[in-house]
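Deliverable D4.2, example record:
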Amino acid sequence: MDRADRARTTVLVVEDDAAMRELLYEELSDEGYRVELASGGRAGIARVKEGGVDLVVTDVKMPDLDGLDALQEIRTVEPAPHVIVITAFGSIETAIKAVKLGANDYITKPFDTDVLKLAVEKALDERGLRREVARLRREVARPYRFENIIGKSQPMQDVFALIRRLGGSAANVLITGESGTGKELIARAIHFNSPRGKRPFVAVNCAAIPDTLLESELFGYKRGAFTDARTDRPGMFVEADAGTLFLDEIGDLSPSLQAKLLRVIQEREIRPLGAQRPEKVDVRVLSATNRDLEQRMKEGAFREDLFYRLNVINLVLPSLRDRPEDILPLAEHFLGEAAVRSGKRVAAFTASALKILTSYPWPGNVRELENVVERAVALAESSELGVDDLPPQVRERRSADVLAGALARNLTLAELEREYIARVLSAEGGNKTRAAQRLGLDRKTLYRKLEEYERADSGEPAVDETPPASLPEVSAAAVSRAATLPPIAPAPLVDPNPEPTLDLPLPRGEATVRIPRDRLVEDDDK
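Output generated by the structure prediction step:
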């Protein structure tokens, strides 16, 4: 600890003897500490409760309050300062009692001031180390808080709700879902949001380690258990004691290891290789797989009894295509992370790139999306990621689930219909006849919809298409009289809403073709 750190450190001296109090003040002030004084135990407790005290140096024998009683009350303050107790010569029993009550160190009278300075520095270094460990634990747990996990879609909200309900439980959880959906992330969220959150989280991929090694990795071994076993080695169950063990790809576990794992879960004890007796362990087991374990049970490849031990709670993670609302927030999150790692000033996606990202089916789920974004940032030449920055398989492949893309863009039914009509019309080169046939619409219906779109774009009021009132009923006598009247020559049909056209006679006067003045193609041959 340098002098600048000492100047920010507050040491409280609790001593009823004025001469000793002044001596301690001078010695510690000379070392650069910020020293405060209290003339008795009660005054010292009151100052500690105000906060900001890093270390308390207190005598044991004081008239108003015994130092050990003061120590007990000081330890209840949050955050509690470190405490050094000064005891009389030969009172080793008192010193031991003080340590048991929470004192970090003790000094016996008479003492050398150098011993005091060393004890103070040691206590403050330990305090700094504990603070750093606590900070690192918070940093490790921060990404697994619910507010920091991206998932605004309803399927992910359902997952979060289930994890919250598991908050006070130590039940085993089986996490299932496709590869790349974030099973380990959710396993860590379960752990860090549980009472075991401050204890170890140990993860192992059962498919990545050969069976011959996995047993010793899980259960450990004793010296001499096999040729290269030169020392004892604790297994992962021991490392995770009082915490959580995450078994990824549990569906790939061999039958022999399945039997051994079942016994550990049932009996809560392990027997390392070469050990003479079992060892008790307290471990919560979270497991994950992208396989159908029920089907593997039917095939005889997975033990039914182990399945039920692991599957106390089943948590199913949705694929990315089943939660399209999360694609854009995830992509923006990965963009920010990749930009920081690469040192590039890439801040956003173009509108075209976003449309492609939301329409792609993402068979590799979140892991594939992260890979695509990282690749795009690495190749980016501007501040925006465009279509050309995306890999070919993403640019060229479209999702078979068109509705998923529309859902991700929050389109209404009318907007979806309009966009589809526009794309079909564009694909047919502007030919309304072929577009209408492809859409399964009457040509006049297509015209009417296009006119509605034009009016909406221009801000004109919509046309009232309320059907006319029904005609009055005609009596049978009136029909009979009308049948005796002479026939009336039919009138020529007149379109009530004629479309402006240009009449072009064909050669030899065979016919006349009418083409709308807006030059839209109406005939398949044109």
